């Protein structure tokens, strides 16, 4: 239906951006509907923020290399402005600007496009369609558990059978760095190597400081579903921060385990995001079939302070595009699609009569398109556009000729009888 | 393949040592040892699907999830810049990435650089070359060749080459001398980001077995 046209002038889009056409939009909307329902039922209110904001606001918390990540322009007065690179920062900004302490905690959610810069050659998308939520104003592990329960419930409903949620804690890595007595420069290096997943360099680097400690460090970086094993590994580590952050995570982990989930849960301390604002528990969602992270989130207690209000918060975002890629067999909604015509349609009374018939049919959620022009290859056209029924009103507008394209049957009926039958679901 | 993993094994000089390590780790490598042109073989005993590919494609296969883990030279990883987990250094398949030029041209090349402020480099590793010269603040015109890079200075299309060498024999035979070492490359075990989490038990098991047999 939407193939590339041949012999046409070449029109391009900037790299990493694309159009989304009706069939895909329909499926994505279905996904958003499932997510949106869950958000709504847990009391999350949807917000919208501008696509463009001042670069100085957007760059807060976007990480050290924000210049490489943001798509930026100049405003008419010369101020640098950028497309938002996620929704967490704009919502933190909004919270700092508009939310009063008495209103806390606030629960907000969004469906939005965000933009990130990438190399022209890499073929990576620069637009991300995300569905997410933020729970602002509570520092309790229960808040983290709440958003994870919602996340799991959504993943179950989307029937992403073999998803894995990896749970980590930034504090745990910091604790390990304390344990090695690392200075800020070394910590920076460690974080970077964990983000770029270079465990070989990591082991070599830490091995120079302390070989046996390095072994434990690398072991702790492996995903693990048994909290007992991790407890065993850290039993010899006398560091308050490590134990505290592990217990915090364990509490959440044990809570989530009590609920139904069709995927699996692992603890993975190698999860660090390249956004600087995360301060505690954080997590990522993976699903076989996609090579990127399907969703991610975590606690960001210091971010909103940068916008004038010192309050804790936690949240997550799911990538709708990626979810769409892995979801198979979303329930197709039954819908009847009708092409309505009459012979020799002229504007005026005939058109008005057709619209009246269409409106009657639409009362039953039937999709009706009015055909303005007869064509010779009507049958091909009907197939190409996948109509179910071709309905032609007679000259006197008393009877209609119904061609059921699916079953290849043709019938002539009185208009009122036909509408009656549609009401009774006879043509579904 | 529900309970198995896919392993990418590189053709060429890394093939033998990689298979050797798999054997030491207790995997059945009969299917790999057969002399045939099959590019993908399945070992039922270990539930492993082996995919035999060009060394440069291993990081790509693993990044896009066609394979869960793979044996890859660090040179290929550096060149491709793939988003994969680098889990183990096998410490074999060692080679060095170096800059070389014609034996009696070192002074000429330096003079050329002083004069034009740039060098012309032939290589099959354009990304490594670009990064290396960028870091040094030298403007470099990088010419990508698909092999026999040593010919480039002889034929006069480049001042220098960036290439891998293990014994230095090819360099000598083509009258080239090393100017600088860029990096040392050994074989690494890499893993797909999603597989590393979704199949973490299988991947961890594989890694730990391999880990137990490397020196």
Write the layout of secondary structure elements.
The complex is a heterodimer of chains A (428) and B (215).
Chain A: H1 22-41, E1 45-46, E2 52-54, H2 55-58, H3 66-69, E3 72-74, E4 80-83, H4 88-98, E5 106-115, E6 127-136, H5 141-157, E7 163-169, H6 170-179, H7 184-195, H8 199-209, H9 211-220, H10 227-234, H11 240-257, E8 264-267, E9 281-287, E10 295-299, E11 313-319, H12 320-326, E12 337-342, H13 349-362, E13 367-370, H14 378-384, E14 389-393, E15 399-404, E16 409-414, H15 415-423
Parallel strand pairs in A: 1-5, 7-8, 12-13, 12-14
Antiparallel strand pairs in A: 2-4, 3-4, 5-6, 6-11, 7-9, 9-10, 10-11, 14-15, 15-16
Helix pairs in contact in A: 1-5, 1-12, 5-11, 6-11, 8-9
Chain B: E1 5-10, H1 15-24, H2 30-33, E2 40-43, E3 48-53, H3 58-63, E4 69-73, H4 74-80, E5 85-89, E6 95-102, H5 106-116, E7 118-123, H6 126-136, E8 139-144, H7 151-155, E9 160-165, H8 169-173, E10 176-185, E11 187-191, H9 193-198, H10 200-211
Parallel strand pairs in B: 1-3, 1-4, 7-8, 7-9
Antiparallel strand pairs in B: 2-3, 4-11, 5-11, 6-9, 6-10
């Amino acid at each position: 239906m939407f193939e590339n046209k041949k012999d046409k002038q070449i029109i391009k889009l900037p790299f990493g951006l694309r159009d989304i056409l009706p069939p895909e939009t329909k499926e994505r909307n279905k996904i958003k509907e499932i997510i949106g329902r869950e958000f709504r039922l847990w009391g999350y209110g949807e917000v919208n923020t501008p696509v463009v904001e001042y670069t100085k606001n957007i760059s807060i918390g976007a990480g050290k290399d924000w210049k490489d990540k943001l798509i930026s322009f100049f405003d008419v007065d010369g101020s640098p402005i950028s497309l938002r690179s996620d929704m967490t920062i704009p919502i933190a900004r909004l919270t700092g600007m508009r939310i009063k302490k008495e209103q806390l905690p606030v629960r907000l959610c969004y469906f939005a496009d965000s933009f990130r810069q990438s190399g022209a050659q890499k073929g990576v998308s620069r637009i991300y369609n995300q569905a997410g939520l933020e729970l602002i104003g509570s520092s309790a592990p229960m808040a983290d558990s709440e958003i994870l329960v919602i996340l799991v419930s959504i993943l179950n409903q989307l029937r992403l059978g073999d998803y894995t949620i990896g749970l980590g804690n930034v504090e745990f890595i910091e604790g390990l760095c304390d344990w090695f007595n690392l200075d800020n420069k070394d910590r920076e290096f460690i974080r970077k190597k964990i983000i770029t997943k270079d465990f070989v360099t990591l082991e070599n680097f830490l091995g120079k400081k302390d070989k046996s400690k390095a072994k434990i460090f690398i072991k702790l970086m492996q995903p693990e579903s048994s909290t007992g094993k991790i407890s065993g590994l850290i039993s010899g580590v006398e560091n308050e921060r490590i134990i505290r952050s592990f217990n915090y995570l364990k509490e959440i982990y044990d809570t989530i385990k009590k609920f139904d989930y069709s995927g699996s849960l692992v603890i993975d301390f190698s999860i660090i995001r390249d956004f600087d604002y995360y301060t505690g528990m954080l997590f990522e969602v993976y699903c076989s079939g996609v090579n990127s992270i399907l969703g991610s989130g975590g606690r960001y207690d210091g971010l909103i302070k940068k916008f004038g209000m010192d309050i804790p918060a936690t949240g997550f975002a799911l990538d709708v595009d990626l979810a769409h890629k892995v979801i198979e067999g979303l329930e197709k909604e039954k819908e009847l699609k009708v092409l309505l015509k009459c012979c020799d349609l002229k504007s005026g009374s005939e058109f008005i009569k057709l619209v009246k018939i269409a409106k009657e049919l639409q009362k039953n959620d039937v999709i009706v398109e009015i055909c303005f022009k007869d064509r010779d290859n009507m049958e091909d056209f009907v197939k190409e556009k996948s109509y179910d029924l071709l309905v032609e009103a007679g000259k006197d507008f008393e009877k209609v000729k119904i061609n059921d394209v699916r079953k290849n049957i043709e019938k002539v009926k009185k208009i009122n009888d036909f509408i009656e039958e549609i009401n009774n679901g006879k043509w579904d | 393949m529900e309970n198995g993993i896919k392993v990418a094994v590189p053709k060429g000089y890394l093939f033998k040592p990689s298979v050797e390590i798999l054997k030491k780790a207790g995997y059945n490598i009969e299917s790999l040892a057969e002399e045939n042109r099959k590019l993908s073989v399945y070992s039922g005993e270990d539930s492993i699907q082996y995919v035999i590919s060009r060394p440069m494609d291993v990081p790509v296969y693993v990044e896009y999830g066609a394979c869960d883990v793979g044996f890859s030279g660090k040179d290929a990883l550096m060149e491709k810049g793939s988003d994969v987990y680098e889990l183990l250094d096998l410490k074999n398949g060692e080679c060095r990435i170096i800059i070389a030029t014609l034996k009696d041209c070192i002074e000429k090349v330096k003079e050329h650089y002083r004069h034009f402020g740039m060098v012309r480099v032939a290589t099959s590793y354009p990304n490594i070359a670009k990064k290396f010269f960028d870091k040094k603040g030298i403007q470099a015109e990088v010419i990508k060749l698909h092999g026999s890079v040593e010919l480039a200075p002889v034929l006069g299309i480049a001042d220098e080459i960036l290439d891998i060498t293990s014994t230095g024999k090819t360099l000598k035979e083509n009258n080239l001398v090393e100017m600088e070492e860029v990096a040392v490359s050994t074989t690494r075990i890499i893993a797909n980001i999603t597989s590393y989490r979704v199949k973490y038990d299988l991947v961890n098991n594989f890694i730990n077995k391999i880990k137990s047999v490397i020196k």
